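Sequence in, structure out. Go.
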Amino acid sequence: MAKAAKSVEPEISEQRAKKFINEVMSHLESIESAKGVYMAAARNEREGITSQLEAMAAHGISQKISKLVVKIAVTSEKVRGWQADLEAEERKLAVKLTKAIGDRRQMSLWGDLPSTSKKPRKAAKKVAKLTVVPTEETAAAAS
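Output:
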């Protein structure tokens, strides 16, 4: 947001105006240069993705299917991020709301969160029974 101009009489000198325009133009040129670098880097990354899709196609997986799987993975990461932003009480409420809606797919998204998963029950203690292994001595004593 731009700062409000002071309510004083403006003093415009040719030197100050030229300095202002030169500095702004310098920043604009830097922005355009950065855009060019960014666009080149983005193009390189897109080409890398294309080569990965083509490699999958060479293994018999269509690019349409590969792109779909990538979109789902990206969306899944977004959902996990949204869920991570919630506090414990908010998660519980979201899970209750999701159950009330009855959307099984959405419920499966909440299933792997540690705060919503059930605690494992305590395992029952098993008492080991001792068994006597017969030896020559115990076999002779028994007869």
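Check: The helical segments are 14-58, 63-84, 88-101, 104-110, 136-142. The mean pLDDT is 79.
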